[in-house]
Write a structure and sequence with these properties.
Layout lengths: L3 E7 L3 H12 L5 E4 L15 E2 L6 H21 L10 E5 L2 H15 L6 E3 L1 H5 L12 E5 L3 E2 L2 H14 L3 E3 L4 E6 L5 E5 L2 E10 L5 H6 L8 E10 L3 H10 L5 E4 L4 E6 L2 E6 L6 E2 L21 H10 L8 E11 L6 E4 L6 E5 L4 H18 L20 H13 L23 H6 L2 E6 L2 E7 L18 H13 L1 E5 L3 E7 L3 H8 L10 E7 L5 E11 L2 E7 L3 H11 L7 E4 L5 E6 L3 H7 L15 E6 L2 E6 L8 E6 L4 H12 L4 E3 L2 H10 L34 H10 L3 E8 L11 E4 L2 E12 L4 E9 L9 E5 L2 E8 L14
Parallel strand pairs: 1-2, 1-11, 2-8, 4-13, 11-19, 22-32
Antiparallel strand pairs: 3-7, 4-6, 5-6, 9-10, 10-11, 12-15, 12-16, 12-17, 13-14, 14-15, 18-19, 20-21, 22-28, 23-26, 23-27, 24-25, 25-26, 28-31, 29-30, 30-31, 33-36, 33-38, 34-35, 34-37, 35-36, 37-38
Helix pairs in contact: 1-5, 1-9, 2-5, 2-9, 12-17
């Protein structure tokens, strides 16, 4: 066995082999894969082999599309058949809500260039003749679906990688990993030690164990999964003969199962509600190419419905039942990328749909390793989207929830309950007592809206405006007309100190740094000049900086900060988590209220817009920013958590006669929309440049060098290819949810990033991107909402306070 390699990939399942192949394709030939048994011997060998391009996250869907398109190339290069059957896929709707879901799915696929369409049940039957039509009301057709041979496909990746120079060692178990002082690794195996620069964890069922070798607990859990294979079905044989093709792949949401042809019968797999994790703490190293004992009772409820929906199945013999384990992350998407805090250690695990996603995972990871960037927006599968709060038992609860809901609708206003409440602030019970409906924000409970007294505090889930509408409106109006208070604990907060802090921030951020006592907004760019962060920075004096960003992106950002920290220790970045939490006051009477709680002068002249001040508020030491996300006069007040309750009570008491009211996250998001403020992960993502996103005034191209400056200069010189736009939509009773296509002059040209109802301006609002070349006065826009193209008007100015006078009051 070789004793050195540039990269060691641990695991010879479909994912590890794909990573190996893609690394060679990127030009890294000195790469080695170590497999403790034979290739495919984890979860890969017993997969049902289905593949599809659809995914709730459009960016993950794009990588799935790439995977499906790759197989032909792979067969050509390797000479190994993947056993492809491109049979087309049908998703069957048995309720109006499911039909609405399918319409939104088709719409999302449009701007990605996916050719899905809504078809009638009669049409669907032409692809799957066993359907009893009376149970369904419509269907979605995806021509780009099918199934393949899992083993053939894995070997095709492996052969293609070997042909390009990669090495594969089977029967080679990685037993431990030791980091070298230079950041490289010593990989200890049962056959000796391999020295390498990078390690990739593609351990599949053993990904947790491989993670533990470097001291991390990955949020991954294996679940048992069953599918059965039937005897021959004469109707299928007849169909094959007559139509000259296979029957299509079917998802029946009502029965929570999938079906496809296998030989002359079918495969039927179910995602049962009574699902069972496999080896919840440790995966035994002795587990080989084995199956688990089937438990048909567990999927009996699915079979009962399936027998009604496809009556012929009730009378068909079952040839065999497969029960095998495979892994999931809490949200069901892969965990890919460099692991924060571990140099040169990469994750390629939690891949629950290896044959839809394996290619995309390999492509993104190899881009990342070779170029320093995944090359796509892969936030939806970045390993950094989970923090250390995603413990083993949290993961267990969420994975079971996700598995059991695999074929359930997720409504846009639906919050899922498993593993909650996890993190709470001191005000949690106080808010609940006042009717707060809570949401899960990166593991933290956050008030979404407040139900009026006497009304049940819960969301009625829907694709349409729902029972929160009137309450959110009242909250918005209170802010615009008087004063509101909201909790803002769910931000990432960082203290940045040290002699080199300012120099470092200037290098990392696109804007200049604020003067002492002042605040600045700044994008952070990657080397390609794309937006990877959007921060508020305050200069607290004495070389201390405070910074606020998206809580969801805290690990993502810390990973970037750590990669770029000077080695001499002259800069320290401390993520504060729950050590500093906040309340925000917003509205025209917020100054009056704040003044009642402090003896500092907070007049407009003494405490100006974008000032930062340390002061006592309600006897509590506080750090106060004169800024809010609402577009109104307002303040963010940050305190240690033990003082939050006192601060809140004082605010409510002092504001009673000013009309103070709680407002939640939903009102905050509506309020920022009325000002056309963008938000991280929707309007600001690593696929957009700052000029495209309308952030040019925060990018100082005349300051000394900063990361992304050259690319930003180029973007400016060439002009942005697309532009963030703001629209007023002629909506009915549903507002945009995000990811809807934008039609320009009757053609899909862009997409919505976010939107909703602006209660103060009484308009349905949306933000999105279209090609810059199409921006012109009077351009005809339409936004597709629930299958209907609704007219939309381009707005060059936000409907609320375009001169920004309210914030500066
Ligand atoms: C019943 C069933 C049906 C399925 N149907 C489908 C389907 O229709 N479509 C689809 O896309 N997916 C399906 N899947 C899921 C699919 O199997 C997985 O997504 C895929 O196998 C994941 O591949 P992987 O490479 O990540 O993991 P694995 O296949 O588990 O591979 C990991 C490999 O790493 C090796 N390894 C681990 N630790 C070490 C170590 N320390 N040293 C050396 N080697 C190590 C293991 O031996 C193993 O071979 C199904 C799964 C099951 C169980």
């Amino acid at each position: 066995m070789r004793t050195t390699a540039r990269v060691v990939v641990i695991g010879g399942g479909v994912v590890g082999c794909s990573v190996l192949y893609h690394l060679t394709k990127k030009g890294w030939k000195d790469v080695m894969l170590l497999e403790r048994d034979q290739l495919t011997s984890g979860s890969t060998w017993h997969a049902a082999g289905g593949f599809h391009t659809l995914n709730g996250d459009p960016n993950v869907a794009m990588l799935q599309s790439y995977t499906v398109g790759l197989y032909k190339e792979l067969e050509e290069i390797s000479g190994q058949s993947c056993g492809l059957h491109l049979s087309a896929g049908i998703m069957l709707a048995d309720t109006p809500e499911r039909m609405e879901f399918l319409k939104t799915t088709v719409a999302k696929g449009r701007y990605l260039g996916m050719h899905t369409e809504i078809i009638s049940v009669q049409e669907a039957k032409k692809y799957f003749p066993l359907i009893d039509e009376k149970h369904f009301i419509g269907a979605l057709l995806d021509p780009n679906e099918g199934h393949l041979d899992p083993s053939g496909t894995t070997y095709a990746y492996a052969k293609a990688a070997k042909l390009a120079g990669a090495t594969i060692e089977v029967q080679t178990k990685v037993e431990s990993l030791r980091q070298k002082p230079d950041g490289g690794w010593l990989v200890h195996t049962n056959k000796g030690v391999v020295e390498c620069e990078h390690v990739v964890n593609a351990g599949g069922l053993w990904a947790r164990e491989v993670g533990r070798m470097v001291g991390i607990e990955l949020p991954v859990l294996a679940m048992e999964h069953m599918y059965l294979v039937t005897e021959e079905i004469p109707e299928i044989v007849a169909y094959n003969k007559e139509a000259g093709k296979e029957i299509g792949h079917v998802i029946d949401f009502g029965a929570e199962c999938y079906l496809r042809q296998e030989g002359k019968g079918i495969v039927l797999g179910a995602y049962e509600k009574a699902c069972v994790p496999w080896s919840p703490r440790n995966t035994p190293w002795t587990f080989g190419q084995e199956l688990l004992a089937p438990d048909i009772d567990r999927i009996a409820p699915s079979l009962e419905v399936a027998f009604r929906h496809f009556p012929r199945l009730e009378h068909v013999g079952i040839k065999r039942i497969i029960n095998g384990p495979f892994t999931f992350a809490p949200d069901g998407n892969p965990l890919v990328g460099p692991v924060q805090g571990r140099t040169n250690f990469w994750s390629a695990c939690g891949v629950m749909a290896g044959f839809s996603q394996g290619g995309g995972v390999g492509l993104a990871l190899s881009n990342w390793m070779v170029d320093g960037d995944p090359g796509f927006d892969i936030w939806g599968m970045d390993v950094a989207r989970y923090g250390d709060w995603a413990t083993r038992s949290y993961t267990n609860a969420k994975v079971r929830e996700n598995y059991s809901r695999r074929f359930s609708i997720r409504f846009p206003n639906e919050e899922l309950p498993a593993g909650r409440p996890l993190q709470t602030t001191p005000l949690y019970d106080t808010f609940l007592a006042q009717g707060a409906v809570m949401g899960d924000s990166w593991g933290m409970e956050t008030p979404l809206w407040f139900a009026p007294a006497g009304e049940k505090a819960e969301d009625l889930v829907s694709f349409h405006r729902s029972n929160d509408f009137a309450a959110v409106k009242a909250e918005c109006l209170a802010v615009r007309e008087a004063v509101g208070v909201t909790e803002i604990a769910n931000f990432a907060k960082y203290d940045i100190t040290g002699a080199g802090a300012e120099r470092w921030l200037l290098h990392l951020m696109a804007n200049t740094m604020p003067a002492p006592g002042r605040i600045m907004l700044t994008p952070m760019l990657n080397h390609q000049g794309k937006i990877i962060g959007d921060f508020t920075l305050a200069n607290a004096g004495d070389g201390r900086y405070m910074m606020w960003g998206s809580s969801q992106a805290q690990v993502y950002h810390m990973r970037w900060f750590e990669q770029h920290l000077p080695k001499d220790g002259s800069v320290r970045v401390a993520p504060l988590g729950m050590k500093r939490i906040g309340l925000s006051l917003a509205g025209p009477r917020s100054r009056e209220l704040l003044q009642r709680l402090t003896d500092d002068d907070v007049s407009g002249e003494a405490f100006r817009f974008m000032d930062y001040r340390e002061m006592e508020v309600a006897t509590v030491r506080a750090k106060v920013n004169r800024i809010t996300y609402t577009g109104d006069l307002g303040y963010e007040i940050w305190v240690a958590p033990e003082y939050q309750l006192r601060l809140y009570r004082s605010i409510m008491a002092a504001g009673a006669d000013l009309g103070i009211r709680n407002f939640g996250m939903r009102a905050l998001l509506c309020l920022r929309l009325e000002k056309n403020f963008g938000t991280w992960y929707r309007e600001f993502r690593p696929i957009y440049g700052p000029f495209e996103a309308g952030l040019e005034r925060f990018v100082k191209l005349d300051k000394t060098d900063f990361i992304g400056k050259a690319a930003a200069l180029q973007e400016k010189a060439e002009g942005p290819k697309r532009t963030r736009i703001f629209m007023v939509v002629d909506a009915l009773d549903s507002d945009v949810m995000g990811d809807e296509p934008i039609w320009v002059d009757g053609k899909v040209q862009g997409w919505v990033t976010s939107g909703g109802y602006g209660h103060y301006v009484q308009q349905s609002l949306a933000q999105g991107y279209i090609p810059t070349a199409l921006l012109r006065d009077g351009v005809q826009l339409e936004v597709e909402i629930l299958g209907e193209r609704r007219p939309a008007r381009l707005q060059m100015q936000p409907p609320l306070d375009p001169q920004a006078l309210r914030m500066r009051m």
